[in-house]
Design a protein that fits this description.
Shape: globular
Strand content: 15-25%
Distance between the termini: 54 Å
Structural class: alpha+beta
Largest sheet: 4 strands, mixed
């Protein structure tokens, strides 16, 4: 785990900020060390996901954080991750992420199953 943290820690730290998480890099690696979450990686990219049991008792892996090069992610990481997660008994591979993934990942077998729209709200400062 120390080797993964040394190699991917800076990229994952940026991903955690980008993904607006409420947990830290330390928390993330603690989840991995405990086996609560799982990872797949290549030399230059890593994907970290959280297992989930579906209502039909199927086991899914929800990828939450990915960092690396786009080419490596698409050509190597996702296929290797798919095989690793299949061997671990997961029946579904889900990805949350950047809308740009729609153009790329549908070409490698991902299908749109849900649309999630979000709007951030904030209170405007009032002038006295």
């Amino acid at each position: 785990m120390k080797e993964l943290r040394a190699r991917f820690g800076p990229g994952l730290a940026k991903a955690l900020v980008r993904d607006k998480t409420s947990y830290s890099l330390d928390d993330l690696f603690l989840l991995l060390e405990k086996g609560s979450w799982v990872e797949a990686h290549t030399e230059t990219s890593i994907a970290i996901g959280a297992p989930h049991t579906e209502v039909d008792n199927g086991r899914s892996i929800y990828l939450l954080h990915i960092t690396g090069t786009l080419q490596d992610i698409v050509e190597n990481l996702l296929p290797q991750g798919e095989e690793k997660f299949r061997q671990l008994g997961y029946s579904k591979f889900c990805l949350y992420g950047n809308p740009a993934y729609l153009r790329i990942l549908t070409k490698v077998g991902f299908a749109i199953k849900e649309i999630h729209l979000e709007k951030e709200l904030w209170a405007a400062k009032q002038k006295n």
